[in-house]
Amino acid sequence: MKLEFLSKSVDYVSGEPYKTRVVLGNSEGAIYPVFFDPDFINKESGELFKLALDQIYFVNFPDKAERDKFNQIDEQLEKNKKAGEANKQKVEDVAILADVLISLAITRDGGMEQNAYTKVAAIIKPLEKEKRYTNGDIVAMPYPFGTNSKWPKDTATIFKFTTREGDGYTYRGQNVEEMLQTGILSIIMPKLG
Asked: What is the DSSP string of 55-71?
């Protein structure tokens, strides 16, 4: 039986709104009332029609309706998973591009202009505990020394790992001064003028 929207109205009890009545029917004279909370009267007819059909479906075919609802949820979860994977790939692509641009910026002859350097240093990740670094990896950490009047202590500074090719270095919380003294890190400074 194909139903269509016929009307909506509010039923009252003791002068107070009691239920919103949505009436569905067909051309053969069938009438099927469906009831909702009184505030549903403010919803559009198309939305009420869909809500009424859903309610009829759930009341008359509860097992199938529940399976269908779970299938819809599974489909939405799958869509979300695919969208998440696509977003993850985009984030990885942006990270790779950022690494390339940072590498280009720090290898510039004569050093980077100080304003650009500050912006680049702000987006470079700091040292991460238990992470394995290899030759050429870049990190940004606070400048550890207080002896350079043009570059104050704790200024965001870019450092480059200088291990032998093929060797690596696992950071376990050592201080930056020690890593500089042993030659594991080198400082990449901007143009200071």
From this structure: HHHHHH-HHHHHHHHHH
